[in-house]
């Protein structure tokens, strides 16, 4: 089960490598520290995961990421990602494996946690504008008997479209909401970090 650990490491390194880009996006409509916060969270998560006795347990891995974010990351996105990963971990058991069904279950729980913690809904220029279309890809993929890899490819494209969509709408949550319609034209940094995670998961399995 080293593959799960490797996938997380790949995603974490991708986030960390794009720290400055995420900061730049956040500087336009927020505090300018989203990249730093994401890098701090994933660096802490990697340290915890590497010290695990059983890194093949998806619940433990997701819990480690959630705990790392809750204990080390502030800002707007930190608590949302913490809530998402912690609730996702509770949706897993020792028999959970990487399948379309498990993605639907785990991602669905993560989305509900974000909705509850952030009191957000689609169309408010947040990470939900990426994660909900990704979730819908897996639901429709199951109906169409698509493979997991096919769903990941479609999810990566849907995530990109979702992040692009955030440029066209005004923010109504967080610091960006203070800008009102002036936030239009700027891509949401939280949506972008979610895009990177989805895209890099696909890239990892594409190798």
TrEMBL record:
Keywords: Glycerol metabolism, Kinase, Transferase
Pfam family, one: Dak2
Gene3D superfamilies to which the protein is assigned, alphabetical: 1.25.40.340
Enzyme Commission number, as recorded: 2.7.1.121
Gene that this polypeptide is encoded by: dhaL
Positions of the DhaL domain: 2-203
Listed GO MF terms: glycerone kinase activity; phosphoenolpyruvate-glycerone phosphotransferase activity
GO cellular component, one term: cytosol
PANTHER family from the UniProt entry: TRIOKINASE/FMN CYCLASE, TRIOKINASE_FMN CYCLASE
Domain of life from the UniProt record: Bacteria
UniProt function note: ADP-binding subunit of the dihydroxyacetone kinase, which is responsible for the phosphoenolpyruvate (PEP)-dependent phosphorylation of dihydroxyacetone. DhaL-ADP is converted to DhaL-ATP via a phosphoryl group transfer from DhaM and transmits it to dihydroxyacetone binds to DhaK.
Membrane spanning residue stretches: none
Coiled coil: none
Protein name, entry field: phosphoenolpyruvate--glycerone phosphotransferase
Record GO biological process: glycerol catabolic process
Catalytic activity: dihydroxyacetone + phosphoenolpyruvate = dihydroxyacetone phosphate + pyruvate
């Amino acid at each position: 089960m080293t593959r799960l650990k490797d996938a997380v490491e790949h995603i974490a390194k991708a986030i960390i490598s794009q720290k400055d880009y995420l900061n730049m996006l956040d500087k336009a409509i927020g505090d300018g520290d989203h990249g730093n916060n994401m890098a701090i969270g994933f660096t802490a998560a990697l340290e915890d995961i590497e010290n695990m006795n059983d890194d093949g347990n998806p619940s433990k891995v997701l819990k480690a990421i959630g705990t790392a974010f809750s204990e080390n990351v502030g800002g707007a996105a930190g608590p949302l990602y913490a809530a998402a990963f912690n609730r996702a971990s509770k949706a897993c058991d020792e028999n959970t494996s990487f399948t379309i069904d498990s993605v639907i279950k785990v991602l669905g729980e993560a989305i509900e946690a974000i909705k509850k913690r952030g009191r957000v809904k689609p169309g408010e220029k947040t990470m939900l504008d990426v994660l909900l279309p990704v979730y819908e890809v897996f639901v429709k993929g199951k109906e169409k008997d698509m493979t997991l890899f096919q769903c990941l490819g479609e999810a990566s494209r849907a995530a990109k479209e979702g992040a692009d969509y955030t440029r066209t709408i005004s923010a109504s949550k967080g610091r960006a909401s203070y800008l009102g319609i002036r936030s239009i034209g700027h891509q949401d940094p939280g949506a972008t970090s979610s895009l990177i995670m989805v895209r890099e998961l696909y890239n990892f399995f594409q190798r």
